[in-house]
Every structure is written in structure tokens, then in C-alpha cells.
Amino acid sequence: MHTRVYRPICLVVIVTAMLVVGFPSITARAAYQPVSSVVLTVGSPTMTVNGFRFPIDPVDPKVVPVVEAAWDRALVPIRNVVELTGGDVTWTPAAKTVWLSLESHVVELTVGNANARVDGRTVWIDTDHRVVPTIVLGHVMVPVRFAAQSLGGLATWTLQSRTITLTLPKQMEQVTDMMGHIVTVPRHVVRIATLSATATQLVFAVGAQDQLVVASFGSAVKGKAMGAIYPRMNQVPEAGNQNAANIETLLAARPDIVLTEEGPALDQMKAVGLPAYAFSAEQPGQLYDAIKRMGVLTGHMAEAAASLNLLTTKMKEIADEVGAVEPARRLRVYVAGTGIFKTFAGDFFQTFMVRNAGGVSVSEQLTGGKIDVSPEQVLVWNPDVIILTSYTTDTVSDVITNPKLQNVAAVRDHRVYVMPKYVVSWDMPVPESFLGTMWLAHKLYPDQVRFDMSAEITQFYRQFYQFTVPAADLAALSQ
């Protein structure tokens, strides 16, 4: 990916008002088609790129497409058009020359010159040799049909709506996902699809949620909180998950990238050329890496950096607090999964959360992810604290009164707690887990570790979801 730099002189293109060129509709076909559709309207400061609106010039809203009566040409800015397609635009003031590049095509135009260089060949810009690139009100003008076709695309002028529609190839590049797969993705991502709830949460972490065209929330996420945070939730189609994807739904949505986890769906998408990128956040450090990668993939690097800064700062605060707890006094913790006799092995995220909160996971020596254990094993472990996740079917009362657990220290001392949930349970490998770590540290060592949970919760959801938690919800989460 690349960082876009806006220069003082905006580059603008000219389109013949009577231009009529066929524009193929983009529909779901047998394979993914990496094509961009760009629609600009005379007088409007915004354009639609693959269904989403963007400013034509992010710096100057006065820059709009206009019709120049003297030439009978529509003047249309080009810089952001090319860059949103993943291409590059370079302006050299001294030579008054502009270079446009997209995929394997390079176009060189010079102000006042009716000829241009296209992929090393000298050609006329227009059949009317009076038409040359020119500077009007500080903006360089070049013919849009010529520019589009020279870059491997097409252009259409619609007189009734006074719109110009471009179809351009997307600049693609190879990247390596978190599972080590080489993936070919658009250089500039506009339309985003997700096939896992974790990937969806990462999209929110970098502020790219408005670009979702397909999203997997999961039953655990599709609750009251997410409905308030993201009113579009029930309007965005789902397409299965990492184990089984609905390829037809994905193709119809025309995503620039499909964000998922490791699973059989990767082979499904590979077969039709969909750009699928796999994430993982189960291991230490992966959550931070995942957010950083998401920012780069979606072009939201600044938002990703802000979120990472908050996470890094807060996790250091937690480490400083629990660092004062002597190793000999660290409590033994049992985290329940969907039931009291289901837990997580040492290779799962919950183990690292317990460790970060200053505890010792009783199951950390095991492997295999989600595992079943016997009541006898829990007795042998004899945890000081039992944590029930928000999705554990057993309640605190069920555990306290379970006759098979009466000799467990956590049951005897009534130190059985339920991990909070808002968007998702705070024990999951998503950004909310830092709140879970903070909450757990306080539950383990209430006399030594103290946080203003109301303030921490408020700050987190404002940063990661641009949402202010209602007072009633805040009170419940802060207990």
C-alpha cells in the first residue's frame, strides 16, 4: 500500500460532452473482476467510486466538474480518480508535465502539447488537435476519454444527468496475510467483506466500517449494543464464515478484499479469484499486528495508529499495576468456555489474558484449543478464581451449588465471576479484550489493582466504535 500525497496543483481531465462509449455493467460472474466504477457529476464536489462517495479534491471542495462552453468539453478532476483506483499521479511544475500510471500503463502529458506519450508511444490526444492539456484556475486539464482509454479503461458521458462514468482496472499488488498466504489484492481498498466476527471487529478498530458490503457479525455480536453502534448492521448481507462461504453473495457484492480467518472458505474463494486475506489474533502480539495490517490494507493508517496507541498505553498501565504482585501470591485462574467443564488450552487467547492480568491459568500446560475437562481435573487444579465467559451456559449459582465442585477453592470462597460483554465477550481476541484484562486484574487483586472502569470503558468505545456508551450500560459494565 502507499501513502497518498496531495500536491498544490490538482490534475483535471476533459471529456467531450457528446462522448458516447459503452460501459459494461459489473455483475457477479464466474470469477472476481478487479474493476473500478467511478461516477462524477457536473457541479458536484463528490464522486462515487465502487458505490461509495469520496471528495473529488479532499483539500478544496470548490473543485467540481464543469462544462467549458468554448470547447464544449466537460472538465473533470483526475488525481483522486486514479489514486482511488490504486494508480499514481505525478506533476512536475518545471516541465508542466503530468504522469498517470495504472497497472502496466504509463501516460505522459504536457501542458500545451497536443501529443502525449502512452506506454512509450507518441500519440495525438484528440482528433481535434486544438485540444491540449492546459491550466485553468490552477488546475491541469487533460481529456478524460483519452486518459481512461490510455489507462486500459472506458468512459461514458450521459447528457441527461450530466455525469461521466469511468470504468478502470484496479492496480493490484501481492501481500502476505497473517497465515503466510500470498494474496493479490487491490492497492486501494474501497469495498470490504468479512467472513468472521473477529475480522469485522478489526474493521471497526480502524474506522472502516462504513465500507462494509458484506459482514459477519455472528450471533454473539448481533446484540443491542452493536445495533446501537452500527444501525446498518441488519442491512449489510452476510456470506457465511471461514468454514463455508456463500461465493455468489460475495461475487455479487464486488468486494475489493475479503477478510477472514483460516478455514475451508479460503479454498472456495481462491477458486474464483476473490482476494481473501486471513487474520489471526489468538497469539500474543497478533492483535496489534492485525490492527496495523488492517489499517494498511484499508488505507486507514492514522486511525489504526490511534487505536494501537490506546491499547499499548492501557496494557502498559495494567502491566505496571499487576507487576507489584509477588509471583508467590499470583492466583490460579480457571476460565470456562461454553460450559463449566469446557476450558481453553495454553495456545488460546484466554490463557494470555489471564497472564496479562497477573494470574496463572491452570490449563496453560495443555494444548488443543477448546478442550473438555472432568470435575476431577478441576479439583486437582483447585483454582483460586473461576471466570465464566458471557457465553458460559452455567451461571454463578450453578457453579457455587455444583456438588462436584464444593472442594474447589474458588467455589468455597465464592470467587466465581462472569466476564462482561458489550459488543462481544471481553475474553475474545478482539480490541475489547483489553477491558477484559483490566476487569480481570481488578477481580484478582482488588486491594492492589484499581482502575476507573467507567472512564476506561467510555474512552475505549469512543475510540474504537465512535460511540458513547449510555449511562445505564456503563453502570452495568463497571460493576
Keyphrases for this structure?
26% strand; Copper Amine Oxidase, Chain A, domain 1; Rossmann fold; single chain; 479 residues; 5-stranded antiparallel beta sheet; alpha/beta; ABC_transptr_periplasmic_BD; Fe/B12 periplasmic-binding domain-containing protein; disordered N terminus; 29 strands; Cu_amine_oxidase-like_N; 5-stranded mixed beta sheet
Description:
The protein folds into three domains: 11-169, Copper Amine Oxidase, Chain A, domain 1 (2-Layer Sandwich); 172-299, Rossmann fold (3-Layer(aba) Sandwich), CATH 3.40.50; 314-477, 3-Layer(aba) Sandwich (Rossmann fold), CATH 3.40.50.1980. It is 28% helix and 26% strand. It has 15 helices and 29 strands. The strands form eight sheets. Strands 5-6-1-13-12 form a five-stranded mixed β-sheet. It has a five-stranded antiparallel β-sheet with strand order 4-3-2-15-14. A five-stranded antiparallel β-sheet has the order 7-8-9-10-11. A hairpin with a 4-residue loop joins strand 9 and strand 10. Helix 7 (286-298) packs antiparallel against helix 8 (301-322). The longest helix has 22 residues, at 301-322. Mean pLDDT is 89; it is low at 1-9 and 15-30.
Number of strands: 29
User: Order of strands across the biggest sheet?
Assistant: 5-6-1-13-12
Number of domains: 3
Q: Per CATH, what is the topology of the largest domain?
A: Rossmann fold
User: Which structural category fits the helices and strands?
Assistant: alpha/beta
Tally of helical runs:
15
CATH class of the largest domain: Alpha Beta
Q: Radius of gyration in whole Å, from Cα?
A: 28 Å
Distance between the termini: 43 Å
Low-confidence stretches: 1-9, 15-30
Helix content estimate: 25-40%
Mean pLDDT level? 89
